[in-house]
Amino acid sequence: MAQDVLDEVEIRQLLIDHVGHRCCWGSRPARTWKITSIEDCNVYVGTLETFIEERDTVTNKEPYDGGKIDGSDKGPVLAVWELDLRSEFPLLFVPEKEVMVKIPHSEVIEKCLDCESRGEIPCPICNAGQEHGFYKANQMTRCSACHGRGLLAHQDGSDTVCGMCSGKGMLPCIACGSRGLVTCKTCSGYGSLLAKSTAHVRWKTLSARKVSATRGAASVPDEVFHRAQGIQLCNIQAYQCTPAFFADSYQLNQFSSEVVASRLPVPPSARVISERHIISVVPVIRVTMAHRKQCFSFYVVGYNRDVFIRDYPSKFCWGLCCCFEWLRN
Ligand SMILES: [Zn+2]
Ligand SMILES: [Zn+2]
Ligand SMILES: [Zn+2]
């Protein structure tokens, strides 16, 4: 493997580059400490991706003002899973795609239940709580400016006609002008609604991931290995994947079984389109450097040679940057 040819000079240079990108890490340990050991601790990374499609129907209603509709007299109404969506279909195993597609011939005219198709409802101010069809028109409220007198009294004893109610002492309802009815908001007064059905379709890849790290690399977070470049040992695509078989490795067979068994649950409104099971080996070396009685280790991960280091001995930050590990030490 490419990693095997890394010599001490190259390894030290990878560390120096890595440290150089940290503003507050001193380069002295990287440059001067002695490399005391280089160990191989390769890691297996396994994924099981389940590519699913979910469909459900969303119905929207809007006021129907007459006019032509695309109803069931124009053709058959297909169930949501019968729709041909080949033109929308994404590439297999894309992370996510979502479309809304109108279901042909699904338009239906419905009665407005809020107003019982009347287009109007009893006024919520002057006929609050009244049944449909039973409402009182000409309900007036007493004028608050003249307290119902129709006249305004002045300090010199004279009266003038109340301007608010024009001397009537009563005011009509502000919501309906005392008609007793207001326009139904649900149907905008048309009395009918147009119901339209839309298919809501989502494609999604569910990913179950596992890392089989040897003891030497156990302290490295799994994410580091999932990001790393490795070599694929198997890549199986099937409607439902079964564990891979490696004739020469009981351990890999076991690992493959564990990965496949960690399959994520498929929601009831979804169907599986395809699965893909991949196992890769990621080359990892663990390097230990020492100086007098101090030592530290770091990892070189994958063919992209990412350096992972948790406890570099020379971090000089004073709470002004993001190296919180230093504060904990
Ligand atoms: Zn209505
Ligand atoms: Zn009213
Ligand atoms: Zn008045």
Chart the SSEs and their pairings:
Layout: H1 8-20, H2 28-32, E1 34-40, E2 43-63, E3 96-102, E4 108-111, E5 120-122, E6 140-142, E7 151-153, E8 159-161, E9 170-172, E10 181-183, E11 192-212, H3 222-227, E12 231-238, H4 250-261, E13 270-282, E14 284-291, E15 294-301, E16 306-309, H5 324-328
Antiparallel strand pairs: 1-14, 2-11, 2-13, 3-11, 4-11, 5-10, 6-9, 7-8, 12-13, 14-15, 15-16
One zinc ion binds next to loops.
Organism: Oryza glumipatula
InterPro entries: SSUH2_homolog
Protein name: CR-type domain-containing protein
- Describe the oligomeric state of these chains in a short phrase: single chain
DSSP helical segment count = 5
Order of helices and strands: HHEEEEEEEEEEEHEHEEEEH
Global morphology: elongated
Q: Segments where pLDDT lies below 50 for 5+ residues?
A: 325-329
Bound molecules: zinc ion
Secondary structural class: mainly beta
Alpha-carbon Rg, integer = 37 Å
Q: Could you give the count of β-strands?
A: 16
* Biggest sheet record: 6 strands, antiparallel
How far do the termini sit from each other? 36 Å
Question: What level of helicity do the residues show?
Answer: 10-25%
Strand content: 35-45%
